[in-house]
Amino acid sequence: MQLCAGISLSVTSLINIGDRLLVIFDGHCAFCNRSVRWLLAHDRNDRLRFAPSESPKLAALLARHGFQAPAEAAALGTILAVRNTGAAAETVLGHSDAVLALLHELPQPWPGIGSALGWIPRTVRDLGYRLIARSRNHIWGRLESCPVPTPEERERFL
């Protein structure tokens, strides 16, 4: 699979993720990559799978949900969380809804924190999300190439 900047990996397919949540992120965003590293460290129950939005393997999935090209997902400035990948009930969450869904997949205390944040109205949560998303590249920068997952992490990337 092509991640970005010519890095190829042979890893899990979309079919093999079962009921796990698929996390689609901007592979060139330093903040996004740090967030993925944080999620990997905290996902002790193996509930998440990851894919950079630039991956050609995601083109059909993204097209089903109105994205014209894989790069368009990255241009939106949002992380996407996909439930029921490949099923009729496939759902794509973005912005703060994706963050809440991710927190609920992690072990305690993160689901509790996600529930508490869920009490904040979506418009307010999304405003905070957009402020961070808008400045993420300015503050944390862009990566020339995607970090290569460790051998232990590779099975968690598509």
- Helical amount: 40-55%
Give start-end ranges of low-pLDDT stretches: 1-11
Give the overall average pLDDT.
80
* Total DSSP E strands: 4
Rg of Cα set: 15 Å
Major beta sheet summary: 4 strands, mixed
- Which geometry do the CA atoms define? globular
Reading side by side through the largest sheet, how are the strands ordered? 2-1-3-4
Q: Give the CA-CA distance, first to last residue.
A: 7 Å
**Structural class designation:** alpha+beta
Order of helices and strands: EHEHHEEHHH
Structure description:
The protein is of the alpha+beta class. The protein has one domain (14-142). The protein has six helices and four strands; from the N terminus they run E-H-E-H-H-E-E-H-H-H. It has a four-stranded mixed sheet with strand order 2-1-3-4, with helices on one face. Helix 4 (95-105) runs antiparallel to helix 5 (110-118). 31% of the residues are buried. Residues 1-11 have low confidence and may be disordered.
